[in-house]
Amino acid sequence: MRGSLPLRRWRLKAWQTTLLFGFALFIITGPSVFFFDYLAGSATLGFGVSPSSGFHGIGMFYLYMVSYFSSLAVILPALLTRRFGTATAVFLPYVIVGFPINYYFEWVTDHTWVAPWSGLGWTAAFLLTGLSVDLALRYLPEKLTSAWRAALSGVIMGLVCFIVTVAALDFVYVGPLPTNAGSFVGIAYFGLPWMVISSAFGGYTAYVLARDMA
User: How many CA atoms lie within 13 A of 183 on its CB side?
Assistant: First the structure.
C-alpha cells in the first residue's frame, strides 16, 4: 500500500493482524449496540421511540458514539499490513457473526425488513465502509504526510459510514426512512460532525501507533 509505514516490530502475519482487529472491531461495536442504541435510548424515554415495535432507543446511534474506536480498529491494521483489502476484511467477523443475529431479530421476530435478503444490504454497507479506507490509503495524494493520509482516511470512513447507513435504513426496512428527533438521521446535526471528527482522530491515532510499532 502506497504511503504506508514500514513494518518492523509488528510480528503478526497479515491474516493474523486482520483477524485480530476484526474481532476487536466486533467487541467494540457489538456491546455498543445494546448500550447506546437500547440502554441510552431507553434512559431518555420518548426521545427515540419506534411506534411500530415500541422500541425505545436510537437505532444505529452506536455508530456515532464509537466512531473513534472503530476507525482506529480499521485503519491501524491497514497501516500495519500495508495490504489493500485489509480494512475491508476487518469487517468480516462483524458481518458474518452479525448477519444471523440481525436476521433473527429483524426478520424472524420483528419483521422490520422488507425481505429476508435485507441483511445483505447491511453486509454491503459495512464492507463498503472498509473499502473506503482501503481506497483512501491507496489513492490519497502522495504529497500528503502519512499522518494526514491516515486522518483523512478516517474522515472518509466516517462520511461513507454515514451515507451507507442512511441508505440501508432507507432501503432494507419497512416504511419510510425515520427522520424524527429520535432517529439516526434526526440527530445527524450532532452525530455526523462527531463521527467525522472522531474518525479523523482515530485515523491519526492509528498512524501514531503504527509509527511506534515500526
Answer: 13
Give the model's pLDDT for residue 40. Answer: 54
State residue 89's pLDDT score.
Answer: 97
Q: What pTM, to 2 d.p., does this model score? A: 0.85
List of residues 6+ apart from 85 with CB closer than 8 A: 134
In angstroms, rounded to a whole number, what is the distance separating the alpha carbons of residues 194 and 107?
31
Residue 53 has a pLDDT of 44
Residue 170's region, left for phi above 0, alpha for psi from -120 to 50, else beta, is alpha
d(C-alpha 5, C-alpha 80), whole Å: 7
Residue bearing cell 473506503: 132
Contact in structure between 142 and 198 (CB atoms under 8 Å)? no
Contact 160, 129 (CB under 8 A): yes
Name the phi and psi angles at 96, rounded to 5: -70, -45
The CA–CA distances, whole Å, from 121 to 79, 106, 168 equal 28, 13, 6
Q: What residues have CB less than 8 Å from 163, skipping those under 6 apart?
A: none
For 33-44, b/e burial (b = at least 16 CB within 10 A) is beebbbebbeee
